[in-house]
Design a protein that fits this description.
Strand content: 15-25%
Radius of gyration: 13 Å
Distance between the termini: 13 Å
Number of strands: 5
Helix content: 40-55%
Shape: globular
Order of helices and strands: EHEHEHEHEH
Number of helices: 5
Largest sheet: 5 strands, parallel
C-alpha cells in the first residue's frame, strides 16, 4: 500500500487515482497528523509519498516520526520546494525526492524500483 500525504486535495486525488489505475493500493490523507492516525489504526504502507510543505506538522517531521514508528515504511518526498539544503538533507538520509509537478512515469519507475529493492 502507498500512503499519500498531500495537502492539496486535487493533487492528492489525482495521485491516488493514477496509482490505483496502475495497480497500487493507496490511502490518501491531507496532513501528517492524519497520516499518524491512519498508522495508529493499523495501516501498514510499504511506501509513503510525503509533501514537505504540509499544514501543522511538516513532511520532514513526519519522515522522522516514521523512522521511529515503523522503519519498514519507505518515505519518498514530493515537493515543489526549491530549497537545495533541504533536498540535500533529505537525500543524505537516504530519502528519494521528486519535484512537483510530478512526472508520473518517473514516479512509477521509482515506486517499482523501491518495491523491487525491498
Amino acid at each position: 500500500m502507498v500512503l499519500i500525504v498531500e495537502d492539496e486535495r486535487v493533487s492528492r486525488r489525482a495521485l491516488a487515482t493514477l496509482l490505483g489505475h496502475s495497480g497500487f493500493a493507496t490511502t490518501a490523507v491531507g496532513s501528517a497528523e492524519e497520516a499518524l492516525v491512519v498508522l495508529a489504526q493499523g495501516a501498514s504502507p510499504k511506501i509513503a509519498l510525503i509533501d514537505l510543505d504540509l499544514p501543522g506538522m511538516s513532511g520532514a517531521e513526519l519522515i522522522a516520526r516514521l523512522a521511529r514508528l515503523d522503519k519498514s515504511v519507505i518515505p519518498i518526498v514530493i515537493s515543489a520546494a526549491n530549497d537545495d539544503r533541504l533536498i540535500a538533507a533529505t537525500r543524505a538520509r537516504g530519502v528519494s525526492f521528486l519535484r512537483k509537478p510530478l512526472n508520473f512515469e518517473d514516479l512509477l519507475s521509482l515506486l517499482s524500483e523501491v518495491r523491487f529493492l525491498h
